[in-house]
Amino acid sequence: QYIHRAQGLVRLMGMLWPTLEFILGIAMIITLLVGGHEVVAHRITPGDFVAFNTYMILLIWPIIAVGWVVNLFQRGTASVKRIDEILRAVPGIDDSEADPAIPADAVLRGEIEFRNLNFSYGETQVLRDISLKIPAGSSLAIVGPTGSGKTTLVNLIARLYEAPAGSLCMDGRPIRKYPLEVVRRNLGIVPQETFLFSETIRENLAFGVSASSDEELLQAAEAAHIRREFEDFPHGFETMVGERGMTLSGGQKQRLAIARALLRRPAILVLDDAL
Ligand code: ADP
To answer: Which of 8, 117, 122, 164 could form a disulfide with 130 if both were Cys (CB 3.0 to 4.6 A apart)?
Structure first.
């Protein structure tokens, strides 16, 4: 449908200029014929004729510009509508059940507990009766075939999706009691697909961490086993990574994402398929 409509637009635009010039040409001919005749018949002076012509030519550009502005306006309206949809979207997951006694800068110990958790995307149930306690400071590996729900479990911890009430606790309290900021601040996630911005390595690394010293940055890179490699780049940590990190290899991108997660020194570190 898009191709069809775009082709229609191109055809219309292609017609526009020749038509415009054709009409202008016709207008010129009519002016010359009628005006010339009037001058010859001494009903108007040659000065009147020249003045009329000049005014007409002066008017051409404003009229074309009006058409152009109308076009621009319509395209803009269409774009704004799309942006507006995103801006107006009200997140379904919010702080409405948060306990006001918990400050936004609260630090979690990092204990996670699933209690008889069931979760489904619409009709299809993905997680069934999961009970699991991960004590603070411990590590757990979850292994399973693709599509078995590992990422879903992780997304629930980050509260990207909402677990049923009472089925997910952190440090013994239901996750909904924490302001979203607390949950997200205490969590470092290395997602399956790394997202890098068209910025320097340093800025991608420190993304979301307002104040981090060079020392911390290097430590995080060191821990992710990527420091040496980045330092060998022509501009070191100031190297631009290109759109979505296209100048980095897949492994470098992933290690950058790991360093980024470590830099936050999160209470809970999640590596989703970060091999
Ligand atoms: P894994 O990480 O173990 O590969 P996922 O948690 O990504 O598995 O997916 C589990 C199941 O849930 C899959 O069958 C997948 O198709 C489905 N699924 C994942 N995300 C969504 C979503 N946003 N909407 C609907 N279904 C989804």
So the answer is: 117
